[in-house]
Specification:
By secondary structure, the protein is of the alpha+beta class. 23% of the residues lie in helices and 23% in strands.
């Protein structure tokens, strides 16, 4: 009987102490900003000592770096950021077709291509049902259908 009273006392004590141990673990962590804010470049119109071009921040580079924060997740981090943000405006995907042997053909501009064919400086690397992958060296681009309205 005494053993049962000790067990009940230990359980009751555990039930009282347990919420104080668990509550700090359940608190939501403070939200930290996703990244540094946009890069602000201030230009002074006052006559100051001229700064060498190599010591300052190039305004175009600063603008491209601030665009980097707006780019979507899942992009290739090793792809260079350019003014066109990796778009190939010289190619237009007009159609995709698959033969009975499941070999894909893409109608790009006015040329029918298959995997391994070249179009301009690019090689057709992959043809899927809704996009075509073009490669040039280490660069990879996907052509998708444009919405015409």
């Amino acid at each position: 009987m005494k053993k049962e009273h000790i067990q009940i006392g230990v359980i009751a004590l555990g039930v009282l102490v347990l919420p104080f141990v668990i509550m700090p673990l359940l608190k939501t962590p403070e939200k930290k900003p996703a990244g540094p804010g946009p890069l602000i470049v201030s230009v002074s119109t006052e006559a100051a000592s001229p700064m060498p071009a190599s010591a300052g921040i190039n305004v175009k580079t600063a603008g491209l770096q601030s665009k980097r924060w707006d780019l979507p997740w899942g992009r290739d981090p090793f792809m260079a950021i350019s003014d066109s943000v990796g778009k190939l405006n010289e190619f237009e995907l007009k159609g995709i077709s698959f033969a009975r042997d499941k070999k894909g053909y893409a109608f790009i501009n006015d040329q029918i291509t298959a995997v391994g064919d070249s179009i301009g400086e690019y090689e057709v690397a992959l043809i899927e049902k809704d996009r075509v992958m073009l490669k040039r060296g280490a660069q990879t681009f996907f052509l998708t259908f444009t919405e015409q309205q």
